[in-house]
Each structure stands twice: as C-alpha cells, then as structure tokens.
Amino acid sequence: MIGVSEAIAARYHPASAPDFVPARHLKELQLARLQAVVQRAWEHVPLFRNRMDERGMAPGDVRALEDIARLPFTVKTDLRDTYPFGLFASPMSEIVRLHVSSGTTGKPIVVAYTKADVDVWTSVMLRTLASCGVTHGDIVQNAYGYGLFTGGLGAHYGAEALGATVIPISGGNTDRQLMIMRDFKVTVFCSTPSYFTHLADRAEQLGFRMRDLSLRVGVFGAEPWSESMRRHMESDTGIQAFDIYGLSEITGPGVGSECPWRTGLHVFEDHFYPEIVDPLTQEPVAEGVEGELVLTTLSKMAMPMIRYRTRDITAFVPGECPCGRTLRRIRRVGRRSDDMMIIRGINVFPSQVESALLDVEGTMPHYQIILTREKGLDQMEVQVEVTPEIFGDTVGALEEMNQKLVYAIERTVGLRVAVRLVMPHTIARSEGKAKRVIDRRNVEE
Amino acid sequence: MKIHQLSLFLENQPGQIVEPCRILARAGIDIRTLTLADTQRFGILRLILSDWEAGAKALHDAGYVTNVTEVVAVEVPDRPGGLAGLLELLSPAGLNIEYMYAFTSGRADQAVMIFRFNDPDRAIELLQKSGINVVGSVEVYQRIPK
C-alpha cells in the first residue's frame, strides 16, 4: 500500500486537490462564486449593469447554476469599446498588473489583475503544469513571450510556484534556445507548438537531435494545433506533448489543461465556468456537440468576465476521465470561429489543411495559405515547403507529390485548391503564434 | 562504377541558381557538370561535383533540400550514330532511362553521357559486356580539362 500512495504522491501535487473535488461540491462552489461575481460586476461595471437592466434582471435572479444561460454575453468588441479601463471592477490602487493583448485591427485590449487574481492565475498554472506531469525536479525553459503577452509570466509564476527551476528565456533567438536546452539539460519546454517545430528543425540543421537531449515534456498552447501534428512532434523529438488552453481576457494560460490521459482538456471550472453554445443561435448545445466555448470568471476581482464568447470551437467530452479529475473536459481547440475562411462560400479552417498535409506521408507542417480573388472568384493557394521526404530526384515524382497534396486537401476541405511546393525555410517562421493565412482578397478589390 | 549526383529543389524564379553555386564556390567545390530540369513552377538542379559529400553538407547547412542519386557515366563514340548504337543495346533489355545529359570529356573521339537508369547495376553489367566503357567517379573528375 505504501507503494501505491507514493506513486500517487509523485503524480499528484497537493495544489491539484481542487481538480478532484466531487462534482456536487464543485457545483455548490460554482453557484456561490457565480452569485458573488455577478453581484460584483453589476455594482462596478456600468456596461454589465446596463445589459442586465435591459433584460430586467438583477443579481438576485441567479438562483441556480442553470440561470447563467439568462445572463448577457460579453464579446471581444466590448473590451475594445471600453478601452482602456472601462470593464475594471477594482480601483487602480488594488490592481497590481496590466496586460495588453495585441489587436490586429483597431485598439488593443487591456486586462487587469488584483493581487488575489495573480494568486489564482498562479494556482491554475501550477495545476496545469502538474497535470502535464511537471514536478519540482524539472528544469523548465519558458519560451512563451514575456511582457505584455500573458503567456510568459503566466507559465513562469506557475512553474516557480511548483518549485521547478525556471529559465525565463522568452521567445526568439533560436540558436541560444537550443544551446541552453542542451547545456542546462532542460526537461520541460513551454512555447507555441509551431515555435517548437521550428526549434526541432533548427536542431537538425545544427547537427543534433532533440531526442538525444534531456527534454521529456512540451507544454504547448496559444494557438490551435492538430492531433497529427502532435504525433509527428512526439515521434520526431521523443517528448510528450501536452496541450494547454487559455486566453488573456479570462486570465491568460491556465484556463484548461490536458492530463496524462490526454483525452481532452480539463477546464479549471472552480474558477472558470464553461458553457458551449451554438455560435449562431447562441443556445447551449448538447454534450459532445461542437459549439463556441463561453467562459465566466468565477473568482476574478479586477475584471470579471460574464459569459465571455471565446470564438474557440470545441465540445464537452462526455464521460469521466480515467485520471480521476472531476473537472469537465473540452476537446482540443482545433480552430477558432475567427480563423474560419469562407472560400467560394465554403467554410475552411487552417487546421483542416494542416491535417490533410500531415496525412500525406512525411509532410512536415510548414505551410501557408494565400487567399486571392481573381475575376471575382476566391482562389486559395497552399504553399508547402519541400522536405527531404517529399523531394524525389525526378520531375515526375515531385509532380506526383504535388498532386497527392491537392487531392488530400480536396478530400478534407471539399474544395479544389492550388498547391505550390516552395523552397525550404522560405515561409516566415514565427516566434509566437504562426501566421498561417495571408488574405489578400480585400487588398485587391 | 556508379557516380553520385546531387539534386536540388529550386523554385522557378529568376536568380534561384546563383545562391547554391555561390555556396559551393565558398566551400571550394568544383561543379563538373550540371543540368536543369524545369517545369512551370519548379526546377531540379542536378550536379556532378568534385566532392559530393562536402557539397551535400554545404547545401544542407544552408537550408537546401538535396537528394543524392546514383547515376552512370558512359563513354559514347563522338560520331554520327554513336549514341543511337548505345541506346539500341538498352531497350531490348528493358532498361529505362529516366533522364540523361552530356558531359565534356576533353577527348575528340569520345563523349561522356550521364544516365539515370531505373536499374543502374544491370545497366552497367550490360554495357560492360557489350564492350562499352563505363567511367568511374575518379576518372570522371580527372578527365575534364581544368
């Protein structure tokens, strides 16, 4: 019996205890916190109070968890419209941190934390890392960007609270990343999945292989990636790759995480209450059905988010997880409703193109999608970098490969697109989120 | 008797051949001969180098995707019907030529052609049996006048 408890102790960090709370108790806690956060937002955030008034609702109307579905949504433009501090529920004297999320259009969005908010964030990132099997004995190279982006500091605080050794290297400077990874015998790497792929490529160029290093765990997030990309990464580098989920508007990384069973991401729902709704009708969908993830921060002080529409498409995973966590699981977020391209009236997601490319044997996922419009018709070109696996010595072999890629994409997407093989390393590598789609359709009109 | 040929993927755009040539020059590697196969969108540059291993490494380090293929260098009499006579030997034996290109031999009576066969070993055997000279790699490099 001693052996069993030791094994459990090694696997479960004490801070992970809330992951295993019986569902009934969890629901009681969620309701109490929901009532408190609605009250707080109603008292301090005029935008929320006005929307409640429009519905003829008051905080006292939240009597059961199900009542959450009657509350108004919050959307990303609300954060822009109230820039910079319009959604804060705490005075600046209580706010200890501001992060800013880059907006591609218009103004950025600002998110705020009190001391208590930072502590909650730290605790959920600790639980995230523990859930990915990271322990105090690990050396964590944190290549998420430090600064205004929440990724760097979020992972940093969590890893430090866990007691691991943290290298706050931030993003960029790939050769130095590799030198430190090798020389410091780094065991855990945190970054976007696309940056890690780039790093693995570079290691090969420099003449060594990641599987020969001490690296054993990758904690990847901040952009969608596919299951086939994971298989590829793991067989190439010998690590175990975990998917984590978060967004600045809610807290940053630490909203959800995979566990060793990797059958979906557990949402830390004692702090973030998840719903999944149909993006069009805004009605809740049945368990297991895809929809848009909507999150409510149950304990956030500085900037409570009530029913925030994440634009991320996912579904609840039915049933219980073998790991014993009672927290509900969501499927890996493969796509955002924002990422959706409408090409000749057909909805296309970059993740579909990615999985098609990976299905064609030996194709590494360095690709870019270029959208143009010719004579009023949308054109989609997928540029794929040539790899040694693709490159045969004859024109025939290359054209055959090109054709295979065209068919594979057509099968998944339902659209005939052009594929162009390009020279290796000609598609710009990103040190943060990969830019997969270049839409030139509006520019040319 | 087989010779190592290095193939390189290029996009069909102006200036694409310059860079690999510069890289080889910097590494002190001599290009013995080359040929370019091109389509509308991409090209394949095929090279016979003074040191194919060093060449492959230099290009790989610079981020190029290369492919090493074994080809056969064959002496062809430099007179009308020289090549036709040679090809007539091959087709009855079911040997397929994927591509071929010429090579300066530095001799007035003999040309050298590079062949990519579907089955190089069988091709060499057949050619040698028929009394045709298959040129080895060392000889290929020495033959060319500097």
Task: Give an account of the 3D structure.
The complex is a heterodimer of chains A (445) and B (146). The mean pLDDT of chain A is 90. Chain A has a 9-stranded mixed sheet with strand order 4-3-5-6-7-8-9-14-13. A 4-stranded antiparallel sheet of chain A has the order 10-11-12-15. A 4-stranded mixed sheet of chain A has the order 20-19-18-21. Chain A has 2 domains: 1-336, ANL, N-terminal domain (Rossmann fold, 3-Layer(aba) Sandwich), CATH 3.40.50.12780; 341-444, ANL, C-terminal domain (GMP Synthetase, Chain A, domain 3, 2-Layer Sandwich). Chain A has 445 residues and is of the alpha/beta class. Chain A has 12 helices and 21 strands. In chain A, 45% of the residues are buried. In chain A, a hairpin with a 6-residue loop joins strand 8 and strand 9. The radius of gyration of chain A is 23 Å and the shape is globular. Chain A has helices spanning 2-11, 23-44, 46-54, 76-81, 115-131, 150-162, 174-183, 193-205, 227-237, 350-359, 395-413, 441-444, and strands at residues 95-101, 109-114, 139-142, 165-167, 188-191, 217-220, 240-247, 252-258, 265-267, 272-277, 291-297, 308-314, 316-317, 329-330, 335-336, 341-343, 346-348, 367-374, 377-385, 418-422, 437-439. Chain B is built from 5 helices and 7 strands. Chain B has 2 domains: 2-69, VC0802-like (2-Layer Sandwich), CATH 3.30.2130.10; 72-140, VC0802-like, CATH 3.30.2130. Chain B has helices at 18-26, 52-61, 82-90, 120-129, 137-143, and strands at residues 2-11, 31-38, 42-49, 66-77, 97-103, 110-117, 134-135. Chain B starts with a strand and ends with a helix. Chain B is an alpha+beta fold and 146 residues long. Chain B is globular and about 45 Å long. Classes of the chains: A alpha/beta (445), B alpha+beta (146). At the A-B interface, helix 11 and strand 20 of A face strand 1, strand 3 and strand 4 of B.
